[in-house]
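User: Here's a chain of 210 residues. Predict its fold as tokens.
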Amino acid sequence: MKRIALITTSLFALFFVVINGLNAQPWSFVKEKDGIKVYTRTEANSPLKSFKGDVIFNAPIEKVCDMLGNAKNMDWWNKEITDIRVLGFEENKFIKYYMVYNVPWPITSRDLVAETIITSDPATGDKIFDAKPLPNTVPEKLNLIRIRNFRQVWTVKQMDKGNVHVFLEGYIDPGGNIPAWFYNLVVAETPLRAIQSLRERVLSDKPANK
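Assistant: Prediction complete.
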């Protein structure tokens, strides 16, 4: 009986590995601009694509991480963000925030409540900034569409010769009546613009806020 149970358990484990492998679609290269490589991927059970971007540039890893993980350094974020409120912050642990995306008419503006968890990979030393929705925190507003399905992960790797390798991977369902085909046409701009803004801010002469 024990042998049968072991075989059954192994078959189930193999089944889930195969299924997960089938669901994890490969990344498709879209373009490279200003040294930033951009990819998209079709996700299982969703008409919307996820995105990924990465770049290598010369900068102190501490400054890059301070831009991503310090609640005082949000001035480089998306220019369409018209309101940012920090709801909670603990250095090197988490940031909780609320933001409003102001988009041109006739598209309805969006808002988002999220929490970024900050960790370090003990094996590689990579810094990871993992943002997910934070439900039941800020009441919804009638004139805004709340973004409920969202994931964004920044990973910062230390390279040799003072370089850093920055990755951004994410998925966002904007909600409302935005057609999937239109979203998929422009989704590659999300990591491109975000990484461009981060790099520009890191390399600027303006010091990081403390």
